[in-house]
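Reopening: structure tokens for the phosphoric acid mono(formamide)ester complex, inputs below.
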Amino acid sequence: MTALRHFLDLDRIETKTLREILADAASLKSGANGRDSMPLGGRVLAMIFEKPSTRTRVSFEVAMLQLGGQAIRLTPEDTQLGRGETLADTARVLSRLVDGIMIRAARHQSLIELAEHAEVPVINGLTDRSHPCQLLADIMTFEEHRGPIAGRIVAWSGDGNNVANSWIHAAVRFGFELRLACPNSLSPSPEVMAWAHDQGGRVTVTADARAAVARADCVVTDTWVSMGADAGDNRRKLLAPYQVNDALMACADADALFMHCLPAHRGEEVTDAVIDGPRSVVWDEAANRLHSQKGILNWCLG
Ligand code: CP
Ligand code: NVA
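Re-run output (same inputs, fresh job):
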């Protein structure tokens, strides 16, 4: 039996495959495949949401529709998951009814458990550890604006969270330098950092936001309080020096882009002037969720 094409994390998929997915995404976006191209005709994707979502939900649903298939949204509240049916049993049942499963999971372990028991491809739509779908949209966006990301410098300023972990995976897979500036107590996953160093990735962590951003080609941040994170006051105090504002952007290259996966908390991790400013490409990132996920869906389910 051929191995299932799960899209779990960027460290589990080789660069060549990721590049093929991005090329397919670009070709679908440009219309090169023809408007009538419906490669997933009749296929159904189940989407399990243990946490809220705007972009991930809508982009997967529209992507399935435009590729000729359909998506079904499930939550613990409206399924037997909320009454104690295990993810393993849910995976066995869904595998007999749908062609793929996307999950936004509160715990990364739930994604792994689902994938272990599913007989159809499983896609990571965000966990507390990572957000790989976001990163494919972000790489696509950077390259549309600035050309190849290999050899460029990306700076992350803020919480060393799930999205930061996926940027670390991406730095290795796509060959760019990543400098993360985070408070010591909110550093990215040591295990993800160790993987990046084992792979020879150019990924560093500092507590100094200005040093990380110096001459960067792209400055990235994300919410200070991720879904499920402790929102204590101390967290905001710790993260205040990492706000992306005009003063911090002034340390970056004059052509540096600003990126954010959204939703943004204006006045916290980013100011209005930066997110609404000329270097911000946040709406393009959101738009590219649709196109990059078409590439992912084609690879997993096609
Ligand atoms: N960036 C992102 O995944 O957004 P949602 O939480 O709205 O899906
Ligand atoms: N780090 C954020 C990303 C939201 C898309 C969270 O997990 O809430």
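The first strand starts at residue 44 and ends at 49. The two ends are 16 Å apart (CA to CA). Marking as resolved unless the reporter disagrees.
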